[in-house]
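Tokens for chain A. Residues wanted.
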């Protein structure tokens, strides 16, 4: 099966083919997603919330991102792997941004990086692209800006916000990004951006009119317990409940002496 590359993703938009994207944080999950045919695996800084238990993505470090990216790369053969640049890995200067983007490629094995922000991050995107590292942009709701934006709320609901987000989208493309994530904006705005841009748009909470969609794998398969999921999430399975029932059965088998049974024991050869 052919390896997916950045030009392949760009061609998918030109051909009118939708682009499914999922996050992964481990080798086994990455292997499953890859074998199922997902074209892009994103190692999101969302791992801080869904895997580590942080309240926001802000505490996630470069070392944590590289560790998980390396694990994901080990599990995939075909998918394009995008590493999510964590907070403070690119905001403090262009040299630092270049160095950390390079670490994702050199140490993590990623083939592209994602940078949050539009007009504010244009120079950062250009600097990283100029060193031949592909960049995926991210506009709309940008979780690393949660304190400035007043929480996780829908963006682009006023005329001024729409104007800013549209300018962010155009700037991200002009800066050289090969695609852009649009998070938590009204569907008509996401559709307008998708029509304006020549690069693929990947929506999350942005309606059906983008070129692709991304979800956090833990949300999709029900690994976040019974917590309320965001409105834009469709849960396709409840693996958490299956794991819990399996563990309960294991506990019962051990405590009641049914495991290990004879078939689980080694024999002495005589």
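Reply:
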């Amino acid at each position: 099966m052919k390896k997916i590359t950045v030009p392949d993703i760009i061609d998918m938009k030109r051909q009118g083919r939708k682009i499914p994207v999922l996050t992964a944080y481990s080798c086994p999950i990455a292997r499953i997603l890859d074998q199922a045919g997902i074209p892009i695996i994103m190692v999101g800084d969302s791992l801080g919330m869904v895997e580590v238990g942080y309240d926001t993505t802000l505490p996630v470090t470069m070392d944590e991102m590289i560790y998980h990216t390396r694990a994901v790369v080990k599990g995939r053969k075909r998918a394009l792997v995008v590493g999510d640049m964590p907070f403070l890995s690119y905001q403090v200067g262009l040299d630092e941004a270049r160095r950390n983007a390079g670490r994702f490629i050199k140490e993590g094995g990623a083939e592209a990086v994602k940078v949050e922000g539009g007009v504010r991050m244009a120079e950062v995107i250009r600097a990283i692209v100029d060193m031949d590292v592909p960049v995926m942009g991210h506009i709309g709701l940008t979780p690393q800006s949660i304190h400035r934006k007043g929480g996780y709320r829908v963006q682009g609901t006023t005329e001024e916000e729409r104007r800013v987000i549209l300018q962010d989208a155009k700037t991200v493309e002009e800066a050289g990004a090969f695609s852009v994530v649009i998070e938590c904006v009204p569907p008509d705005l996401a559709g307008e951006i998708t029509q304006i841009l020549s690069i693929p748009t990947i929506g999350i909470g942005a309606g059906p009119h983008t070129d692709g969609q991304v979800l956090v794998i833990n949300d999709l398969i029900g690994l976040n317990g019974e917590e309320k999921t965001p409105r834009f999430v469709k849960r396709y399975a409840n693996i958490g409940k299956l794991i819990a029932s399996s563990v309960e059965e294991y506990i019962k088998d051990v405590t009641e002496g049914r495991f290990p049974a004879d078939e689980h024991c080694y024999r002495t050869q005589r």
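The chain has eleven helices and eight strands. The domain at 6-237 is CATH 3.20.20.60 (TIM Barrel).
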